[in-house]
Amino acid sequence: MNRLILFLLMSMLLGSCAQLTPFHSARTEGAGNLTASPAIDGTVFIPSVNSTSFQGLPGGRVELAYGITNKIDILTSLYTSGSIMGSMKFQFLGDNESNIAGAVMPGYEYQSSVIVVNSDPETIHRIHVPLIFSIRANEKTDFYIGPKFTYQIDKDDNNTIYSGIVGGVELGTRIKYNIGLGAYLPKTQNTSTEGYLVQFGGSMRIPLFRK
């Protein structure tokens, strides 16, 4: 029974392809700057460490980021599943020229799922809190890593916490390319859970306006 519940929860997440993994370094856009970031990713659920079987689906998103100050960005993104997310990036350590930077990116994601519960579409709410640290290798290469927590609220009260780690590399100067990966351990209320979730992909950050 527990495995059935876990399978349904993972199918909901994979079918919806949540925006779990931010393809972001810790650095902000800068005051008055606007950037568009198309991205593609793949989400895979692995039942156990030694498992040779898995479930996976591709996805894609488009994100807009605007710098309201040199330390704070506001962001919005739309996923291929129809989920929409709003978030804020606050850079509390370093700046765009420093060798080390740190930022927190709290966000909220809303989705009306294709899964139907009691004749109604399943509405999903997710609260995201990634903490990202960047180390600059040179002016064109920025490595980043940090913990990521997501709290998923479901209609049937089988709420799930996804605890994990994200990391990647950002390449380029004017147009920047991100390659990233996130690995997560889901824990669902009211049932025991096993397995791992991995989301990987890349994005291209395109400047639309520079002040």
Automatic annotation (TrEMBL):
PROSITE patterns: PROKAR_LIPOPROTEIN. Residues 1-18 form the signal peptide. Keywords: Signal. This is Outer membrane protein beta-barrel domain-containing protein.
